[in-house]
Design brief:
The complex is a heterodimer of chains A (about 300) and B (about 240).
Chain A lengths: L7 H8 L13 E5 L2 E6 L4 E7 L4 E7 L9 E6 L4 E12 L4 E9 L5 E12 L4 E9 L6 E11 L4 E8 L6 E10 L4 E10 L4 E10 L5 E10 L4 E10 L5 E10 L4 E10 L5 E9 L3 H8 L5 H13 L1
Helix pairs in contact in A: 2-3
Chain B lengths: L3 E10 L2 E11 L4 E5 L6 H9 L8 E6 L2 E2 L5 H7 L1 E4 L11 H4 L10 H7 L4 H4 L10 H15 L3 E5 L10 H13 L3 E5 L3 H4 L4 E6 L2 E6 L1 H9 L14
Parallel strand pairs in B: 3-8, 3-9, 6-7, 7-8
Antiparallel strand pairs in B: 1-2, 1-4, 4-5, 9-10
Helix pairs in contact in B: 4-6, 6-7
The chains are: A mainly beta (about 300), B alpha/beta (about 240).
Chain lengths: ~300, ~240
């Protein structure tokens, strides 16, 4: 087992090569270690607050109406100690017509007996747009339980795109729960990409409620598991309004003794709504493998290309 | 010495003979067209030469550069210089065309140049993924570009013309000739006579046997009229 201990910045480089951006005064950021705010940079139009409570740290980010934040807002949240617990209550609000990209770096590089809980609420106001990218790095030990839960509301004509990724290092135990509701003409896309190894346990539950007329939604999940890892994907889409269109697309690649399960649930409660789904769970496609081997790649190298492409 | 020699090759699935004592030889830098109706064993022969999973000869021998390769794993055959394009090429989520065109290539080639040779504009394709957003024709062109980039000793092209519009026939022929100019021999599986005419020689496959080998025009004519000795002058069984 590696005995290297990473600091926060080194860990950040694992998931975000351009970590020096935190030094840029035009780029908003918050760095939180445990329940302490370590660093913060504010920019005009973006209000950011953090306060410590008895059992958590509460983070509030609000983008004022009509503000289009030019640079991504970075949140770097993690635990550097091998053990301990972190609970983050995150409230993100984009007011009417605002636009922002939120890059969340969640880092637990040394975790051996640790726990992280994220309870997030996200409000995307009328005509606003939020791109939320959440990159995780859990280190090499697999000794962490990570439970990110988010409830997202996308108002009329709003757009919300989220991308959760954990593709380097161990996962540990992960239980992602996202619930997104869209109003009229709103768009929501939720994607998750995770690579599990050893005895990692992955559970991803995404629920999309297309409540508004002509709202659109996509749930996209890409999981690869190897060794003795296990994954379970539950994707639910409700088509509850006229013209609502939803799609769920899940691929899980399974190797060695790993086990994967996918459960797509479609619920349509309006005759003019439509929800589709596709799910593929299984081993690496033989034709893909042979095509790459016909380029001279050894079988393991070919599998790596296929998996990392899928998780990209 | 021939580059590729296939001798008395048979391949059976349960009790059915798919290939039946087939003989074939390709010289260095030879373009050899393989014609035959659907189900006569053309693709099976390709898979056996390439070493695809589940394709082991029931009898006979495949030699490449004098070495018997019957049981050699696929990637090791590729490392010897054999490659193949499939009728329906695989698609890869998240794999950029630019990366795909440099995978496994022993020589450094500009992927943009490979794309231009197959009639695709690099600025429109290099950053795209080799995934289902490409049309069938685009995907096949990219597959041909990847073979150009690999510079193999032997390229097995399984119906490179299927799914590509007629206007592109000239481009496919140009690619095949470019491969030859780069030093490759080509086993060209096709149904189209105008494509087969680019070959130095052609063979006609019927019911798992080569029933005629010769100049492409006469073999193509034989194929067009479906005449072969195996079928006693009747229309070929397959």
């Amino acid at each position: 087992m590696p005995d290297e201990r990473l600091d926060l910045l080194s860990a950040l480089y694992r998931v975000y090569p351009d970590a020096a951006v935190l030094m840029n005064p035009q780029t908003a950021h918050m760095v939180i270690e445990g329940h302490s705010l370590m660093s913060q940079q504010k920019v005009p139009g973006v209000d950011m607050q953090a306060r410590k409570t008895e059992d958590a740290i509460v983070v509030e980010i609000t983008v004022a109406a009509g503000v289009r934040v030019p640079n991504p807002i970075h949140t770097c949240i993690g635990l550097m100690a091998p053990d301990g617990a972190q609970r983050v209550r995150l409230h993100v609000r984009l007011e009417r017509g605002a636009s922002a990209e939120l890059l969340a770096h969640c880092l637990f590089p040394n975790a051996e007996h640790a726990r992280h809980v994220m309870e997030a609420t996200v409000e995307v106001g009328e005509g606003a747009e939020l791109r939320h990218t959440e990159g995780h790095y859990h280190g090499p030990y697999g000794g962490i339980e990570v439970i990110p839960h988010a409830v997202v509301r996308v108002d009329r004509n709003g757009r919300y795109f989220s991308d959760f990724s954990l593709t380097a290092g161990r996962v540990g135990r992960l239980h992602v729960v996202y619930k997104v509701e869209t109003a009229e003409n709103a768009v929501a896309e939720i994607s998750a990409r995770v690579f599990g190894h050893a005895t990692d346990e992955i559970k991803v539950e995404d629920e999309l409620v297309l409540a508004g007329r002509n709202s659109r939604g996509l749930i996209k999940t890409r999981i690869a598991v190897e060794d003795d890892a296990r994954s379970e994907v539950i994707s639910i889409t409700h088509g509850n309004a006229e013209g609502a269109r939803g799609h769920m697309d899940c691929t899980e690649l399974v190797r060695d003794r790993a086990v994967a399960r996918a459960e797509p649930i479609v619920s349509v409660e309006h005759p003019l709504a439509k929800v589709t789904h596709e799910a593929a769970v299984g081993t690496v496609d033989q034709k893909q493998l042979e095509t790459l081997m016909a380029h001279g790649l050894a079988p393991q190298a070919a599998v790596d290309v296929i998996i990392m492409g899928m998780l990209r | 010495m021939a580059l590729l020699t296939v001798s008395a090759l048979s391949y059976m699935v349960r009790d059915k003979k798919i290939l039946d004592g087939l003989d074939l030889a390709l010289a260095e830098r030879e373009i050899h067209a393989l014609l035959g109706a659907n189900g006569t064993g053309k693709s099976t022969l390709a898979y056996l030469i390439m070493g695809c999973a589940g394709y082991l000869p029931s009898a006979g021998e495949i030699r490449f550069q004098g070495q018997v390769i019957n049981t050699l794993p696929l990637h090791q055959r590729a490392q010897l210089g054999i490659t193949m394009t499939w009728q329906e090429p695989a698609r890869f989520e998240g794999l950029r065309v630019a990366d795909y065109l440099t995978l496994g290539s022993a020589v450094e080639r500009d992927p943009a140049d490979s794309l231009r040779r197959v009639g695709l504009q690099p600025e429109l394709y290099l950053e795209r993924a080799v995934d289902k957003t490409l049309s069938g024709g685009e995907r096949k062109r990219i597959e041909l570009a990847s073979v150009l980039a690999l510079q193999p000793r032997l390229a097995i092209l399984d119906e490179p013309d299927s799914g590509i519009d007629m206007l592109s026939t000239r481009e496919i022929i140009d690619v095949i000739q470019a491969l030859k100019n780069l030093g490759a021999a080509i086993l060209l599986i096709t149904h189209r006579q105008e494509i087969a005419r680019v070959a130095d020689r052609a063979s006609y496959l019927c019911a798992g046997k080569i029933v005629a080998t010769g100049d492409p025009a006469s073999v193509a004519e034989q194929y067009r009229t479906r005449r072969c000795l195996t079928c006693d002058g009747e229309l070929c069984r397959a």
